[in-house]
Write a structure and sequence with these properties.
heterodimer, A: alpha/beta, D-Maltodextrin-Binding Protein, domain 2, 2 domains, five-stranded mixed β-sheet, B: MetI-like fold, 25 helices, 0% strand, globular
Chain lengths: 352, 573
């Protein structure tokens, strides 16, 4: 994302032009839309919805099955890859006039800024989003909203590391005893890791990564993978990755433990949006409504151990409430501006 | 994977109906779409910058930036070592199978075929399960047996030696096939002559058999080098976690956002140039010495009696085959039914969840299986027809310009899969002809990749049908087409079916071109497995991998059931 001052100028000119357009366009968020029988009927006629979802596959498939159970006759097909890969994929497909995706989810919120600028997103506000979501989790123009929240954490395998020896902070990972024992995901693949890398570099400086790169990390791609590698016992500690995967693995009885680093955990807000060129626009809107509904959000909490911006959902007892986790501040606009530099620096330090 | 043999001297026939120009033009156009256009775009892109102005900057970056130089060096080390290892193991195996009385020779050939058709990326994932330093099954056994501490390991698959090992596992069949083929063809007479002149068994082997097989071994070494150099899946799975790139993974990573197609094109060219150079070298070696033993009446090859060594030989062969076949298949089977991919299945962790997940929850499965089948069938059919027509034209010299056709059909052998993928993407992802996003672009890629080998197979099949039979038919008044239908086609039936199956199997295991060309609607099983690997869903991969192997073996076994065909054809592959 090269983003020069001239681009900014152009953008502001464009905004000015938009402001001069008729009032209908200028109006902030569109009217919230309830799920009506007419919408369901139209969605059923389309019969399917394609969800580009950069999220753990078992989780997204579970959400899809929940939707299919509620609205029989509409099949959800999930296209899963990492957010950064997905960003490139969508751009590549749109450049070749291929419009397959209906709904899109990414763990790099910066992507929605770019897509919004490209006018690739449809303005659509499900009724529950308008009623139950705080303003900071809604796009003012009604193009997207935060569908799920979690953090990137540290973690360790309890068979390989005693609790008292476990790292408590990011800088603990730089100790020589962890050399060759760390697994880490990649910011050129995963939106979670891109977002986390930005926040960690901002808080601790790039020197942290430069030193971490010398620890001979096992470099995996997706942020869902480090927790899995811990569970396998392939590495003793993870430097980043989804905390919810660790929670789920622990609940399954796998020998893993979550560590929320003392410096704070990088905060990951994952927006979801309907695409303007969705080939199944009604099914896409119905799916968007389902995902943001209390039912869909509760599923993400209960089944996937994530958190919700929805005011009415309940955290699952026995899990650490989100409010108790010390988080770093997210800043999608800054991630968007620095993405290319972050990837380049990362590759330079880590070799791939 | 061999270069066209020089056509025999058959007198050109006259033909009342001159189909020369239509056929030539049709196939020339087709082959241009497949090869010339993508390669032209590739070259064009490598010489321009983002604005489209001429530049040598891409190449300058390529040779000066360590980000590119390191992968190039790694790739050369990787390819050289793999090639040497392949020869070191495939040569004695090929000799044992073709020239000695070692027991179970047919079984060994079948098992080599199994490692040949196993997708290399699947083998790489299976070897992650086996030899990841901490969680690998073999390392677990090692620690359990020796009582070594938790962080000690015997193997580390995430390393350059690990990668070289895995690539060798699935590349050695190429050397084996070429060598066993050559040894099969060496006539017994020459060895008999040596014995009659007083040479002992081993003297004969050393002074007659081995020198005669040398060209095939050298050719095998080159083919193995090329395979190792152009492979994408295995390095992506094993090298990136270890923190290094090979050329293929580097090229692929240049399509991460923001994509740098110009650099990718420039980085593809060294692979292309090296491949062409090595194939010329192979041609040179085989062209000079390879065929001196072919022709005339041949005595059956004499089998050397191993005596009590035969069991040692068999043990050696099975030990080698453990690496590409028994261990990986076992690991995949274990992961399929285990709750944790790298725990040994036992009553307390047995699960059918992975199977259930792949068949009933994973929404990409159905589409990927459908696309794979569709592409496999279509590529095999089109590829076989093209190979059949071109082989007929070149062996029977049916039209003018047959040499050009033969050359064009063989040319794709010099284009590594990922380079072809980049070329096709650059050519067909933009107007006027947008094929990206459809199955057509994958079809183009798969047919192109399959054509050279298919053409070789059909060509040797045509050679084996003596023209006397066709001549007899023509003399009795049949037209050329009728002769083709009534005489030649029935005689070639088994070869045609074999070629079809060969392409089908090849398409199922193709990843390096598919990874550049797929979209969400045109995903194939290999790409799906690769995607799942990036998110660490090893259980689902194992299930899909076993499905893939099952389809492949069903096809291979079907081919072997064809009477009079047996394993001979696959040795030609």
């Amino acid at each position: 994302m090269r983003f020069s001052r001239r681009d900014l100028l152009k953008a502001s000119v464009a905004t000015a032009a938009l402001a001069a357009a008729p009032a209908r366009v200028r109006a902030a968020a569109p009217e919230p839309v309830a799920v009506t029988p007419a919408l369901i009927e139209a969605a059923k006629k389309e019969g399917k919805v394609v969800w580009y979802a950069a999220m753990d596959l078992p989780v997204s498939e579970r959400v899809a099955r929940g939707f299919e159970a509620k609205y029989p006759g509409i099949a959800v097909r999930i296209e899963r890859t990492g957010s950064e890969r997905q960003f490139q994929r969508l751009a590549q497909e749109y450049a070749a006039n291929i419009f397959v995706a209906d709904v899109i989810n990414a763990s790099d919120a910066a992507h929605f800024i770019a897509w919004k600028r490209n006018q690739w997103l449809a303005a659509f506000v499900p009724e529950e989003v308008a009623r139950f979501y705080p303003a900071e989790h809604r796009d003012p123009d009604g193009l997207f909203a935060t569908s799920r929240v979690y953090v990137s954490s540290l973690g360790y395998n309890t068979n390989m590391v005693k609790p008292e020896d476990a790292p408590r902070s990011f800088v603990d990972l730089l100790e020589p005893k962890w050399t060759g024992k760390i697994v880490k995901a990649h910011p050129s693949y995963s939106g979670t890791i891109m977002t986390a890398t930005f926040q960690i570099a901002r808080e601790l400086g790039w020197g942290y990564f430069e030193k971490l790169a010398k620890q001979k990390v096992l470099q995996v791609q997706s942020s869902v993978d480090p927790p899995k590698k811990l569970a396998l016992g392939e590495r003793a500690v993870m430097a980043d990755g989804n905390d919810f995967n660790l929670v789920l693995l622990k609940e399954q009885g796998q020998p893993v433990e979550i560590v929320y680093p003392t410096e704070g955990s990088p905060l990951i807000n994952c927006p979801n949006a309907v695409l303007a060129r969705a080939p199944n626009p009604n099914a896409a809107r119905l799916f968007q409504s389902y995902l943001f509904s209390r039912e869909g959000q509760q599923l993400l909490i209960d089944f996937a151990a994530q958190h919700s911006a929805h005011a009415q959902v309940k955290e699952k007892p026995g899990r650490k409430p989100f409010a108790e986790i010390k988080v770093m501040k997210d800043d999608p606009a800054a991630v968007e501006a620095q993405a290319e530099e972050i990837k380049a620096r990362y590759s330079k330090y880590f070799g791939v | 994977m061999t270069i066209a043999l020089p056509a025999e001297d058959v007198a050109p026939r006259t033909n009342k109906l001159d189909l020369s120009w239509p056929i030539l033009i049709l196939f020339a156009v087709l082959l241009c779409v497949l090869i010339v256009l993508p390669m032209s775009w590739l070259i064009y892109y490598s010489f321009v910058d983002r604005t489209g102005a001429f530049t040598l900057g891409n190449f300058k970056t390529l040779v000066t930036d360590p980000v590119f130089v390191d992968p190039l060096v790694t790739t050369v080390i990787l390819a050289t070592s793999s090639s040497l290892i392949c020869c070191a193991f495939a040569a004695p195996m090929g000799w044992l199978v073709a020239r000695t009385d070692m027991p179970l020779r047919r079984t060994v050939r079948a098992l080599v075929t199994a490692s040949f058709v196993t997708p290399p990326f699947l083998g790489a994932i299976a070897w992650e399960l086996l030899a990841a330093p901490n969680s690998g099954l073999l390392n677990k056994i090692y620690r359990a047996v020796t009582g070594a501490p938790q962080d000690e390991y015997l193997f580390n698959i995430y390393s350059l030696p690990g990668l070289i090992f895995v690539i060798s596992c699935y590349t050695f069949p190429y050397v084996f096939v070429l060598l066993a083929n050559a040894l099969d063809r060496i006539p017994g007479d020459l060895e008999d002559a040596s014995s009659i002149l007083g040479g002992r068994t081993w003297t004969t082997a050393r002074r007659v058999t081995i020198p005669l097989a040398m060209p095939a071994l050298l050719a095998g070494a080159l083919v193995a080098f090329l395979q190792a150099m152009t492979l994408f899946g295995s390095p992506a799975i094993l090298a990136i976690p270890a923190g290094f790139h090979t050329m293929t993974t580097k090229i692929w990573s240049l399509f991460n956002y923001p994509p740098k197609p110009e650099l990718a094109a420039a980085a593809s060219l060294p692979l292309l140039v090296l491949t062409v150079a090595l194939l010329r070298a192979e041609h040179f070696i085989l062209g000079r010495r390879g065929y001196s033993v072919v022709g005339g009446k041949q005595g059956d090859p004499r089998l050397i009696r191993l005596g009590r060594w035969q069991w040692a030989a068999l043990a050696f062969v099975f030990l080698v085959l453990t690496c590409p076949v028994f261990l990986p298949y076992g690991a995949l089977l274990n992961a399929t039914f285990s709750k944790v991919a790298t725990s040994f299945v036992w009553f307390n962790n047995f699960t059918l969840h992975n199977i259930e997940f792949v068949f009933f929850e994973l929404s990409a499965t159905k589409l990927a299986v459908k696309n794979t089948f569709l592409l496999g069938t279509a590529s095999a059919t089109i590829g076989t027809i093209m190979a059949l027509v071109i082989a007929y034209v070149t062996t029977r010299r049916a039209i003018r310009g047959y040499r050009t056709l033969g050359f064009l059909a063989t040319a794709p052998v010099a284009i590594p899969g990922i380079v072809l993928g980049v070329g096709l993407f650059l050519s067909y992802a933009r107007p006027p002809l947008v094929l990206y996003g459809t199955l057509w672009i994958l079809l183009l890629a798969f047919v192109t990749i399959a054509l050279p080998a298919a053409y070789q197979q059909m060509q040797s099949a045509f050679r084996s049908v003596h023209t006397d039979l066709e001549d007899a038919s023509r003399i009795l008044g049949s037209t050329r087409l009728r002769t083709l239908r009534d005489i030649t086609a029935p005689l070639l039936r088994t070869s045609v079916i074999a070629t079809w199956c060969f392409i089908f199997v090849g398409v199922i295991r193709e990843l390096s071109a598919a990874i550049m060309l797929f979209t969400s609607e045109t995903k194939v099983i290999s790409v799906l497995i690769f995607d799942l690997n990036e998110s660490g869903d090893l259980g689902a991969i194992s299930v899909l991998g076993l499905i893939m192997l099952a389809i492949t073996f069903a096809v291979v076994i079907a081919v072997n059931r064809i009477p009079g065909f047996g394993d001979a054809r696959l040795r030609n592959a």
